[in-house]
Amino acid sequence: MDFGTETIRAAAERIHGRVRRTPLLSSPMLDEATGATVLVKAEALQLTGSFKIRGALNVLLSLTDAERDAGVLAFSTGNHGQAVAASARMTGSRATIVMPQDAPRIKVDGVRWWGGEVVFYDPAAQDREVVGRDLVAERGLTLVHPYDDVRTMAGQGTAGLEILDQLREGGHAPDAIVLPCSGGGLASGVLEAVRSEVDAAPFVVEREGYPKMARSLATGRVQQVPAVPAFLDAIGSPTVGESTLAALSRHPVTALELSDDQARLAMREAFRTLKLVLEPGGSAALAAVLARRDRFAGKTVVVLASGGNVDASVYSEVLADATPG
Amino acid sequence: MDFGTETIRAAAERIHGRVRRTPLLSSPMLDEATGATVLVKAEALQLTGSFKIRGALNVLLSLTDAERDAGVLAFSTGNHGQAVAASARMTGSRATIVMPQDAPRIKVDGVRWWGGEVVFYDPAAQDREVVGRDLVAERGLTLVHPYDDVRTMAGQGTAGLEILDQLREGGHAPDAIVLPCSGGGLASGVLEAVRSEVDAAPFVVEREGYPKMARSLATGRVQQVPAVPAFLDAIGSPTVGESTLAALSRHPVTALELSDDQARLAMREAFRTLKLVLEPGGSAALAAVLARRDRFAGKTVVVLASGGNVDASVYSEVLADATPG
Questions:
Q1: What is the pLDDT of residue A1?
Q2: Residue A282 domain-assigned?
Q3: pLDDT, tens digit, for every residue of B43-71?
Q4: Is A319 an interface residue toward B (CB < 8 Å)?
Q5: Contact B185, B151 (CB under 8 A)
Q6: Taking the model in full, what pTM does it have?
Q7: A272 and A160 in a common domain
Q8: Rounded distance, CA B279 to CA B180, Å?
Q9: B132 and B222, same domain (yes or no)
Q10: For B257-280, what is the mean pLDDT?
Q11: How many other C-beta atoms lie within 10 A of the C-beta of residue B184?
Q12: Do both B32 and B81 map to the same domain?
């Protein structure tokens, strides 16, 4: 696997000016709530409402004209799907997005808004990879993998290059960096970018009871878990990638688990202290810092808030629910 | 009145490094919803959740040591109050904040979090200026006026200097700039800063039926309206300032009015398209652009989103309510 800082820098040049430089937010109230100094990379403010546009656009811009003309396909609960639909639109391609029937409405609407064609599947009965690969064969499309592709990983890593700049600008020296983990594309890209210059302990966060990355890292082989409950759809991948596992294995990664209630608490804290809308999975890293004072109190911690695509009805319920995490 | 770009630049130097440079956000979905190219200066992401810290901190840093030692007072529904409490804390002073009994809970909590002492009054029976001035006399405090003070206006104007930088960085040439208007401190400061370099038509937005600034500008004298309904508390001042009126009179300002429902729609659009939490008054400028396609369609418009301090219960109700604006 040819994957390193140079790959990520090349991706950054490729997508420059087409994606946002998202801010690194902080709040004294959030610092009080966590006991730490928390720096939040607000990828919810990214174009399409999540970091996924970074990787998807890097892939689309790496295709041949013939591949772009034939069209692309992605399977996704929605953030990668919106990103691929947007990237296809921005590069003159067409996107087919395979989504579970129970995907958040705002994500389905988002894919369609960007001109993507939505193909639903039944997550209880069908494997999204099989549905996707069948369509790829049938329609002559190019699959844009949500994580297990060096071009995707490098694109996601561009968020890490921005974090490096922002740490320098703010004069911060973080002790830890905490990233949500679904298939591992974001974590592998950002850690590769950041850890070349910053000696911060790396953490990834998975759904409680579904530690596919923890097990994969422990065994050195890609592991599978059952389908993750839908609430945390953004970190819902039931497995990781060969490439992402190989890349993450280079770092001394600690995997943490979070519960739905911990994510809810983090969403409320982001609302109260940052004025930032986070979706459940997008709050995973912040949730871990709120829940694990034993790990993070007294530390300077970079947290990546990966997305904000949440239905208004779900968000209202979360705000109304004051159950402590 | 000695008020101009130099005053604002001096304020920017004074508060530099203590307040945030907030991002200028945009969204293709928001552009579609408005028919315009909208650039949103996200002051909800400012320290204390609104732009008010800019002016309050500039005042606190302009006081004598003796004045700071004796303490300061502000009357406010909460954004100015939080800003004065935070500024007092940051400069070693103490703040007393006079607030209406029905102020949003999140704002009362915010004032107290920053160490401010809250004194409630009954907005139906008492005049906040009288309550405030009595306490000032009694306790030997310095009043930090929410708008009618050149130091406050200059501090708010620092948001305008950032907008200028951000317009240059993005290569944008706006046709219009739209600002919420309560007492006029923000509008007078930002217009003074921006219009020295950018020829954008200036708009201010007030609550429908309570056009104190429109009437003041039309008559050339400070006008009063009855107390504005509490939902839009952030633009709730029933009057304007002598200084703010004088400063705004230098510009060809058009005053627009908005309804509560238009503010609700704008809050939902900010949630959906920007992932930004806005309070009702904080959404006023965006609401005007959404509501007035006749004015803004096809234009590049800078909108200042002034604050995000809204109670979770109110926010949930707004998200649940799909009444079109």
A1: 61
A2: yes
A3: 999 999 999 999 999 999 999 999 999 99
A4: yes
A5: no
A6: 0.96
A7: yes
A8: 12
A9: no
A10: 97
A11: 32
A12: no
Q: Which two tokens stand for residue B99?
A: 């607030």
Q: How far apart are the first and last CA of chain A?
A: 40
Alpha carbon of B195 to those of A102, A252, B4: distances in Å? Answer: 49, 53, 11
Assess A78–B contact: CB distance below 8 Å, yes or no: no
Task: Convert the pLDDT of each residue in B194-216 to its tens digit.
Answer: 988 999 999 999 999 999 999 99
Say if the Cβ atoms of B275 and A271 lie within 8 Å. Answer: no
Please provide the size of chain A in residues: 325
Q: Hey, of A275, A283, A315, A319, which one would you mutate to test binding to chain B, going by the most B CBs within 10 A of its CB? A: A275
Look at residues A175, A173, A200 and name the one whose alpha carbon lies nearest to residue A187.
Answer: A200
B23 contacts A45? CB cut-off 8 A: yes
Decide: helix, strand or coil at residue A152: helix
The verdict on A302 and A226 lying in the same domain is yes
B43 in the same domain as B58: no
Q: What's the per-residue H, E or C state across chain B?
A: CCCCHHHHHHHHHHHCCCCCCCCEECCHHHHHHHCCEEEEEEHHHCHHHECHHHHHHHHHHHCCHHHHHHCEEEECCCHHHHHHHHHHHHHCCCEEEEEECCCCHHHHHHHHHCCCEEEEECCCCCCHHHHHHHHHHHHCCEECCCCCCHHHHHHHHHHHHHHHHHHHHHCCCCCEEEEECCCCHHHHHHHHHHCCCCCCEEEEEEECCCCHHHHHHHHCCCCECCCCCHHHHHHCCCECCHHHHHHHCCCCCEEEEECHHHHHHHHHHHHHHHCECCCCHHHHHHHHHHHCHHHHCCCEEEEEECECCCCHHHHHHHHHCCCCC
Instruction: Kindly determine whether residue B45 and residue A23, on different chains, have CB atoms separated by under 8 Å.
Output: yes
> B25 CB near a chain A CB, below 8 Å?
yes
Examine the domain organization and report whether B26 and B114 are in the same domain.
no
Q: Are residues A91 and A238 in the same domain?
A: no
Residue A325 placed within a domain: no
Which of A143, A173, A197 is the C-terminal boundary of a domain?
A143
- Within an 8 Å CB–CB cutoff, is residue A169 touching chain B? no
Closest partner residue to A275 among B49, B268, B272, by Cβ? B49
Residue B325 lies in a domain: no
pLDDT beyond 90 at B289:
yes
What ipTM was estimated for this complex?
Answer: 0.96
- Among the candidates A78, A108, A143, a domain finishes at A143
User: The tokens 């004051």 sit on which residue?
Assistant: A322
* A90 and A158, same domain (yes or no): no
Q: How confident is the model at residue A198 (pLDDT cuts 50, 70, 90)?
A: very high
Domain assignment of residue B112, yes or no: yes
Q: What is the CA radius of gyration of chain A?
A: 18
Confirm if B194 and B298 have CB atoms less than 8 A apart: no
* DSSP state at residue A137: H
Q: How many domains, chain B?
A: 2
Q: Which domain holds residue A96?
A: 53-143
Q: Domain holding A18: CATH number?
A: 3.40.50.1100
Alpha-carbon gap, residue A131 to A129, rounded angstroms? 6
Chain A residues within 8 A of B45 when measuring between CB atoms: 23, 25, 274-276
